[in-house]
Amino acid sequence: MDTEEMRRQLRHLTDRAEITDLLDRYLRSLDHGVLDEEWARAFHTEDVTAEMPVGTVRGRDAVLDRVRRGMALFDRTVHFGTNNVIEVDGDRATVRGAQLSTHVLAGGSDGVFVSAGHTETELVRTADGWRVSATALRIVWTQGTPPRLPAEFAPTAV
To answer: Model-level pTM?
Structure first.
């Protein structure tokens, strides 16, 4: 194996590790982090599109607002992502995976809501590292009591 091939393989492995780390940190941040502008910049491009169970939005500020409002529906959560298939093509990447999310409803309720689905994520390499440029979470099944959604969470088209 020549030096150039080793560099290419190392770059590929490094990209995959950085993307895996970004996606893992994102899910953990939903459970433990502060959802602010710094959070949004750490994970998303400015023009990101996000298709979520609580609607589709475009733009980093809109994603931040929607995630913040969505997470406020729960007292505690655990998000688990797995089976990620990562394909890197230069400065772009796609990831397809699975997500299992457990939510304890807010407001002192004992209600627990579990959802599972498939994720599709597009990423781009930026000067600050890999960032999500488009993402979709498509729920396959749920169990338990879903939260009561505010009217502004009505599904929207982008």
So the answer is: 0.92
99 burial type by CB count under 10 A (0-12 exposed, 13-18 middle, 19+ buried): buried
> How many Å apart are CA 109 and CA 58, to the nearest integer?
32
Question: Per-residue pLDDT tens for 72-129?
Answer: 999 999 999 999 999 999 999 999 999 999 999 998 777 999 999 999 999 999 999 9
Tokens 């440029």 locate to 133
- The model's pLDDT over 116-129, given as tens digits with 9 standing for 90+, comes to 999 999 999 999 99
Q: In a 10 Å sphere around its CB, with 0-12 CB exposed, 13-18 middle and 19+ buried, how is residue 132 labelled?
A: buried
